[in-house]
Amino acid sequence: MNLSGHAVKFLKPSNDNNVVYLDKNEPIIESNVTNFVYNRHHSLSLQAQRQKLPIFNYRNHILYLLEKYSCLVLVGETGCGKSTQIPQYLVEAEWTKDETLIGVAEPRRVAAITLASRVAEETGTILGEEVGYSVRFDDCITNKTQIKYMTTGILLREMMADPLLNKYSIIVLDEAHERNIQADILMGLLKKVLKKRKSLKIVIASATLDAENIRDFFNFNTTKDSVKDTSVIMSVQGRNFPVEIYYLQEPVPDYVTATVNTIVKLHEREPPGDILAFLTGQEEVDRAVSMLTSNIRDNLIKRNPSKQELVVLPMYGSLPYSDQLKVFRRADDNQRKVIISTNVAETSVTIPGIVYVIDCGFVKMRWFNTETQTDRLVVVPVSQASAEQRSGRAGRMRAGKAYRLYTEEDFKKLPLNTLPEMQRTNLLDVVLQLKALGIDNVLRFNFPSPPSAKNLMIAFELLYALGAIDMTGNLTKPDGLTMAEFALEPLFSKMLIESGKLGCSDEITSIVSMLQVENIFVKPRSGEASIRARKQKRNFEVHEGDLITLLNVYNGYRSSDNARAYCSRHFLSYKALQRVDEIRTRIEHTMRNYNIPKSSSNGFSEPILKSITAGLFPNAAYLHHSGVYKTIRGDIELYIHPNSVFYTMQQPQWVLYTEILFTNKLYMQEITNIKEEWLIEVAPHFYRKTNLRDFV
Ligand code: ADP
Ligand code: MG
User: What DSSP letter does each residue of 518-550 carry, written as one string?
Assistant: First the structure.
């Protein structure tokens, strides 16, 4: 576990901006969301900017509907003013006069913070006073605060202490179209609150049109008389021109190549107008961009009738700010912009000037597999609603065209709507949270889209094996309660709790903190630098696996005299490691609150590995004699991810992984080398000795 100090040439990391900090249950597929905000009126005064927003014309109508209905489902395109304006309209209409608050719940912490800063600026106040925010590990509010932006996780937590949300007059649930787990739990809970507290109003803000289900979920009117409805939809109309849809005659084998070919043809034949193409992930986007640019370089793309040149730009969430900004800038008259984007351009941002859309028909998402009992990242066909949303992006300037890279028959076979996360991921945290909120019968809880009973049962079984609930299904004290309140993945909370007992909480805290931040390693694109980066990473690698390797990185960074230089030298992201430090401090604080003793194993790896096993044991696999890994339960074939230390090192017999990534194969991520007997020691209900013996 020791680090050797190698003399390496100083090299500036190519890009330090790619730090993604994940809140609990934030979507991990960073390329599908962005926190980038484009402001087309930035040169006007703030008040003038506010009045230019499409939502401004609806101000009085929104206020009227909130007097009349208890739930307003507000639909409007990204950028129209939902998140920043509604809370201000509500304050102006005196919804906060009885010292009550307006709460706005956001799926991502960065959104909560930037929105609060923006609204503080628009209202000419100091951030944290009238307008503040509260996110995990960070608060900025006072007793003056009237508008409080927060993450959905924080709101859930507050409901544990204040189930009727008495200090709020209005709750805005933002980005509801994302339908992530916490938003769905919140909707279920808010429905309960509305029944008990008639004075509460809720606004559900969504960027897509699919809103009827949500309205119906909150409608308490059981008669046919719509006058008695308690819930209503309002849409903020943007400009929408007709979009002509084209399908393929035959399916294509490779949609990236098909996208590139379509762009080339389109550019050569169609009149001016920018192009937006949807692919599923960063690698695909980069591949399409480089295919197009090499075509341009080799003059394979002919100029179109109006003699425009093609300007190719990538767009995804982890792209540096300045590159995201380029996508929004107007091209010159003799240029046609083509933006190759992940799902971010579907709802997360609105790119102006698009006339042509190309839709590959797929999207990357997290999907729970009941066989392996793990979440996987998979590429799946989009829903019809998603395809419509993508096409609609072509009709904002003038009549547009959308090219779907699939047949019309295949379109008709697509699911109508995207499955909410609740119906496609593991439910450990859902059960824990609901239990902590005092909901006894989780199976009967009124979810907007109920998960399958089978998945709920799997979650119960695993929570029992983790020691979080007892035989009767109640949270155990203190472990279950601690896990529910820890604001971390339950498996990681378990690791922390166990590390207190095994005398290595210091090390496990570092490891868990490292796992909260993505892109610790800087990966230069160019050949020579990338080889050097890989060599540098090898200095940290150990046969115990990726988690101990992360610990080595953290310890190296921590003990260096000049952390910034250390990071540059070792191709580490300084920014990312600073984040890790912040998170680490917070986790330590929480551990103190829950009386988990601080301790260190002083360089011995066994207690650390055992603590890891105590949390990650459900994710165990063994090396089959055929040379591939298989899950112990379910017998599913798994592969080592190329980022893992075991991709090049000798492969261990028994391993644990943090998650599975599914691209062409099922890849285990962040692998740890363990001993078989530890599995039986820490999870006797889950693995029996006799079962394990069969494998070796
Ligand atoms: P919505 O929630 O409907 O997507 P927002 O209320 O977030 O829209 O934003 C409305 C508009 O306010 C944006 O189109 C942009 O012009 C401006 N805006 C919002 N946030 C910022 C920000 N952080 N910086 C600059 N402009 C912003
Ligand atoms: Mg918004």
Answer: E--B---SSHHHHHHHHHHHHTT--TTBHHHHH
